[in-house]
Design a protein that fits this description.
Number of helices: 10
CATH superfamily: P-loop containing nucleotide triphosphate hydrolases
CATH architecture: 3-Layer(aba) Sandwich
Largest sheet: 6 strands, mixed
Number of strands: 9
Radius of gyration: 18 Å
Number of domains: 1
Strand content: 15-25%
Distance between the termini: 28 Å
Helix content: 25-40%
Structural class: alpha/beta
Length: 245
Amino acid sequence: MTAPGIRIKDLMIGFSRRSPFNNRAWELEIGKGELVGVIGPNGSGKTSFLRALMGDDTFLSGQILIDGEIGSVESWSSKKLSEVFSYLPQESSFDFLQETEAFLKLAFLPHLGLFGRFSNEEDSELASFAREFELSPYLKKRLQDLSSGERQRVFLGRALLQPSHVVLLDEPTNHLDPNVCEKTWMFLKNKKKKKTVLVATHDLAQVERHCDRVIVLSGNELLFSGTTTEYQSREIKRLVFPFIC
């Protein structure tokens, strides 16, 4: 494994310290720049885990250390968290009348601040990213005029465009057709060296093809964390999804 990008110690998640989701504390490491698939059945804790990584309300106790930063995430300010993490939830709220370009520019808000000026450098970065991620045709369109699949690509694009160290994606390929889904995974794979990316997903085939590491949750417990090769050789999938194997 490469140098740890995320080190997790004694993690307990849930909404109440009296009844945490997991009975045993989780300990795992994720290499810097790795693409990680987070898989498991519905209700296994994938979303709660992603949110806990940011010190959100599902974090109960433990330590989450990012890129050698001093102190665990629960002690960080909201500004620092927004600079380190970008997060795409399963359902995103948005202003229907907002233009796609203006929506994407919000990716730079943690870096620029509320009253920061959008420079030529950010303009150039956005334009280059839009071409690479095939969002250029949508830039002048309002979000309400996009299909659900097109909007999902825009939401995903904003999360990836944000100048963060860690990207957390919760079911990011929802609503995407198979062709766009494949392109998205290839994009994530090619970009992973610059950022550590965790993807909560049910797309097991894409995880096996593209991810460096797999985290498997079942019944709100950490069942497995290791390389994709280890995951395949130990046939972990059979334990979690016996009816499809």
